[in-house]
Design a protein that fits this description.
Belongs to the glycosyltransferase 2 family. Plant cellulose synthase-like E subfamily. This is Cellulose synthase-like protein E6. By secondary structure, the chain is an alpha/beta fold. The protein folds into 2 domains: 276 residues, no CATH class; 355 residues, no CATH class. It is built from 27 helices and 12 strands. Helix 5 links the parallel strand 3 and strand 4. Helix 3 runs antiparallel to helix 19 and helix 5 runs parallel beside helix 6.
Length: 744
């Protein structure tokens, strides 16, 4: 009896000790003291060069206007640099412990609703979408506690057909994944990798599953190409009858179809295990009602899921962001279920990573520094922003709940709420919640759900959540949680950044400006962190000025910098060199290559003089009522020749887009200014002129070196991806006109 009592007391002590152990830990990035010293010295250098600018203004007629323009540009850069320091001062990283989660909760875990949004079966192929869906259904998590919802804003029978095919294939795919614990669990990604996975199972079984998957994707792709579904296939599920009437992507009734009902005893996989719930939704679209793009689809999903599964946790991903880590749900729950901090956390954001980046990141789409430094920095001051994908939310905060210290989540939601209604009854109830008029005269899109009226609805929604008192967490596990498809052409990249910069700037100019809306609600550094992205678009003007005016001034013999031998040149050199050296160190330490860093510098300039410039002008036009908000879906499809050039890291142009005219004009202008400027120096007083104009020569030369791929695309390359001759001709004309502009 004494031994039993001792054992019982020991067990109680172990249990209490386990309850006090955190489910996650927070680490501060190393090297912060060195970075702060670096930042202080750079700040001193910036102040010195601004002082020089302000105290050495030339006389009228000797380039005064150009000089004052340089001062304005440098003042802007200084202010923006100061804003960026808010998230670089003390970034953190979070370390979840899923082993502790398992020891503490076992399988007594909350239900999770997973939302996937797609909009166009041609820009976002259904075969890609269902690979994402299948990867999410195969999480290392109790299947009866997972419900996956696909929102099809295109209302396409082709997407529904693909999801129906996926519901059949899931019966084989999910047990296969769990039996051999394979990663990744997207069949498209898994089978595209090397055949080394065969050693996990018999070659016969591996080949059988692969053949089943390839047959399924072939049927789906054939249907997409033909644009129709056979009557034989339609007879297999009642859902196909929803398209018996004439439907279009912008005019159709609400459609909700439960393809797999997790609580149905017959909804089992090949091994007799329960399958996750799988639901298709196409909310009602009518031409006379504004549908609010992705935000409207997300809000419809929140309502529809509330009568089907009603899980307390909602996760959403883009249709191309497949699950790359089967333990991601458990990682996220380590934050929500932590006894000390969990009740304060409103959402957990995972980073955006891509599986198709080239080695040297030709279009600057690697977000390694952003993921590891900037988002970690925001995490240290209140939490990262919501980026619209790869995010776990509490359902209640999406429904407008404010944070209170005594708040306690009911983690049994989605279990006890399940009723015994038939599938047809549930579907009909859900359809009424997806009607186009349901939100009229309600708080949906304002106080409830994802906010409306902004291209970057995710950012403003996250800001609203933070201002209601909630914190957020950035989780960046060693194995990426999600992998998606990065833009593979320059046009796709510029379109994506135009949308991001336009959306963020429109928020900055609205009532949701972080400095006004967040005043008194979130920390000043948190407000500044949000503003980094809100000020992307205005960066276009000083950048455009800096890549044009100093070069033109060189051509016209007007000096805009101190002489190279002057002590005042020191702060210019110091800021330029130290800032870029640290940027290179940061990129390399985050996993980028030297050439990748250089490509990022090129794309930094290109995005600012094109995407951000268009984002700025479009935002101003909307504020003046000259245009309306639109949402452009970034295509996930590229031609074979484009894909080949992307793999070879050759920049893709191929069209006469106005953005290319800007890029080519700036490149030609700087080349001409460099050549003519050198000739003038060589034919004039070599030593004197070189001393005066060396800074402008160096700047112009750096721009020319940066623009080498554009010269090749205009004058050397012969492939379809070259810059069209019409663009080159127009750019030559604009460059000549720019040379005639007087510098005063």
């Amino acid at each position: 009896l004494q031994e039993f009592t001792k054992d019982s007391e020991s067990d109680r002590r172990d249990w209490k000790m386990e309850r006090t152990r955190r489910l996650f830990e927070t680490e501060t990035h190393g090297g912060r003291a060195a970075y702060r010293l670096h930042a202080v010295t750079v700040a001193a250098g910036i102040l010195l060069l601004l002082y020089y600018r302000a105290t050495h203004v030339p006389a009228a007629g000797e380039g005064r206007a150009a000089w004052l323009g340089m001062l304005a540009a440098e003042l802007w850069y200084a202010a923006y640099w100061a804003v960026t320091q808010s998230v670089r001062w003390s970034p953190v990283r979070r370390l979840p412990f899923i082993d502790r989660l398992a020891a503490r909760y076992g399988e007594r875990l909350p239900c999770v609703d997973i939302f996937v949004c797609t909009a166009d079966p041609h820009s976002e192929p259904p075969s890609l979408v269902i690979s994402t869906v299948l990867s999410l259904m195969a999480y290392n998590y109790p299947a009866e506690k997972i419900s996956v919802y696909l929102s099809d804003d295109g209302g396409s029978v082709l997407t529904f057909y693909a999801l129906w095919e996926a519901s059949l294939f899931a019966k084989h795919w999910i047990p296969f994944c769990k039996r051999y614990n394979i990663e990744p669990r997207s069949p498209a990604a898994y089978f595209s990798e090397s055949d080394g996975h065969q050693d996990l199972c018999s070659p016969k079984e591996w080949s059988l599953i692969r053949e089943m998957y390839e047959d399924m994707t072939e049927r789906i792709d054939t249907a997409v190409l033909s644009g129709k579904i056979s009557e034989e296939v339609k007879a297999n599920h009642k859902g196909f009858h929803e398209w018996d009437q004439e439907n279009t992507s912008k005019n159709h009734q609400p459609i909700v179809q439960i393809l797999i009902e997790g609580k149905d005893k017959n909804a089992n996989d090949d091994e007799g295990n329960v399958l996750p719930t799988l639901v298709y939704m196409a909310r009602e679209k009518r031409p006379q009602h504004h549908h609010n793009f992705k935000a409207g689809a997300m809000n419809a999903l929140i309502r529809v899921s509330s009568v089907i599964s009603n899980s307390p946790i909602i996760m959403n991903v883009d249709c191309d962001m497949y699950s790359n880590n089967c333990d991601t749900i458990r990682d996220a729950l380590c934050f929500f279920l932590d006894e000390e901090m969990g009740h304060k956390i409103g959402f957990v954001q995972f980073p955006q990573n891509y599986n198709n980046l080239t080695k040297n990141n030709i279009y600057g789409n690697s977000h390694q520094v952003t993921n590891q430094v900037l988002m970690g920095g925001m995490d240290s001051v209140g939490g990262p922003m919501y980026v619209g994908t790869g995010c776990f939310h509490r359902r209640e905060i999406l429904c407008g709940r404010r944070f209170t210290e005594d708040y306690k989540e009911d983690w049994n939601g989605g279990i006890k709420d399940k009723t015994q209604e038939s599938i047809v009854e549930i579907e009909e109830k859900a359809k009424s919640l997806a009607a186009s008029t349901y939100e009229h005269d309600t708080q949906w899109g304002d106080e409830i759900g994802i906010k409306y009226g902004y291209p970057a609805e995710d950012i403003v929604t996250g800001l609203g959540i933070h201002c209601r008192g909630w914190k957020s967490v950035h989780s960046n596990p060693p194995r990426p949680a999600f992998l998606g498809v990065a833009p593979t052409t320059l046009a796709q990249t510029l379109l994506q950044h135009k949308r991001w910069s336009e959306g963020s700037f429109s928020i900055f100019l609205s009532k949701y400006c972080p400095f006004m809306f967040g005043h008194g609600k979130i920390k000043l550094r948190h407000q500044m962190g949000y503003s980094i992205y809100g000020l992307w678009a205005p960066n276009s003007i000083p950048t455009l000025y800096y890549v044009i005016i100093p070069s033109l001034a060189l051509l016209k013999g007007i000096s805009l910098f101190p002489e190279i031998t002057s002590p005042w040149m020191s702060p210019f050199i110091y800021v330029l060199c130290v800032k870029n050296m640290y940027s290179l160190y940061e990129a390399l330490s985050c996993g980028d290559t030297l050439k990748g860093w250089w490509n990022e510098q090129r794309m930094w300039m290109v995005r600012r003089i094109t995407s951000y410039l268009y984002g700025l002008t479009d935002t101003v036009r909307k504020l003046l009522g000259l245009s309306k908000m639109t949402f452009a879906v970034t295509s996930k499809v590229s031609e074979e020749s484009e894909s080949k050039r992307y793999e070879q890291e050759i920049m893709e142009f191929g069209s006469s887009a106005p953005e290319y005219v800007i890029i080519a004009t700036v490149a030609l202008l700087n080349l001409n200014c460099l050549v003519v400027g050198l000739c003038q120096i060589m034919t004039g007083g070599w030593n004197i002129l070189l001393n005066v104009f060396s800074p402008q020569l160096i700047l112009c030369g750096m721009l020319v070196i940066t623009n080498i791929p554009f010269y090749e695309a205009m004058f050397v390359r012969k492939d379809k991806g070259r810059i069209p001759f019409s663009v080159t001709l127009a750019s030559i004309g604009f460059a000549i006109l720019a040379l005639l502009v007087p510098i005063v």
